[in-house]
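Lab notebook, bench 4. We co-purified these components, and the gel suggests they stay together. Before we commit to crystallization screens, I want a quick structural picture of the whole thing.
Request: model the full complex, all chains together.
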Amino acid sequence: MIDGKKRKEEKRIKDEDLFKVVDSTIDSRTYLSLIQIARRLNIKEYYGAISSGKEAKIYPALTRDGKWYAVKIYYVSTAASKRALEKYTLGDPRFKDVKIKTTFQLIEIWARKEYKNLARLSEAGVSAPKPIYVFRNILVMEFIGEEGVRAPLLKEVPEEAITEELYNAIITEVEKMVNLAHLVHGDLSEYNIMVWDNRPYIIDVSQSVDIEHPNALELLQRDLENINRFFEGHGVNVEPVEDILGRLEISNVKGNDVYNSSG
Ligand code: ATP
Ligand code: MN
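Here is the predicted assembly.
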């Protein structure tokens, strides 16, 4: 009885009360999805966007029992993004049966893909946000930071915190990502790593591919070069990319041998 009454009362709460900040960029379909997600995950409030990239926006959300989530909303945008989506999803064995129709369906695949990739990272013990829920074009994950204030990106970390220890910790996460989760990030840089309590968190894995993907080695090489370039630029002694690759179990058609003999 009391439970039923309480539930009715909760439904009576005006939907607008869910949103701390009015965001006119949220379309009505996404808005309704956010309301459904709030009911499902016991979310009390969504806060203003902490980031608006080209293809996604991130909002902090607070549950009634005081947990913070990061809510990533993917947007249907340009033809370029459609091409990128196709490039990464085609060739990925997990998506070979998916018949691609509309850009909206693509964006939903994109959200599910990031969810699955985060789940693989989490299972393999890689430091990354834990996935919580995915619905349509919206992904809910663990919030990296405190009280709705996000952790800094590697790009934003103060100079004195950019150390060899941090570099090694990041390379260790990349190794776990490849050897245990069998994933290559594909867009790794100082913009897609957060640092919290001196610990790196790998984020933005929607485009990450299985190590069997035809471009996996090429992407991994570029990821490592980005990390090395960043730390070298801050005076940290880095390990040559080919040495790191030597420890990574990524032997596809193109293979490590080809890389090693040319490098
Ligand atoms: P952008 O183009 O802005 O990089 P994106 O589509 O690449 O957007 P992400 O990189 O996943 O999306 O997230 C955008 C930003 O949101 C990140 O740079 C980071 O500041 C913040 N962010 C992402 N995930 C989380 C999280 N789990 N917890 C806290 N903040 C996060
Ligand atoms: Mn990003």
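The helical segments are 2-12, 28-41, 79-89, 103-123, 164-179, 216-233, 241-246, 255-262. Worth comparing against the SEC data before the next meeting. Confidence is low (pLDDT under 50) at residues 255-263.
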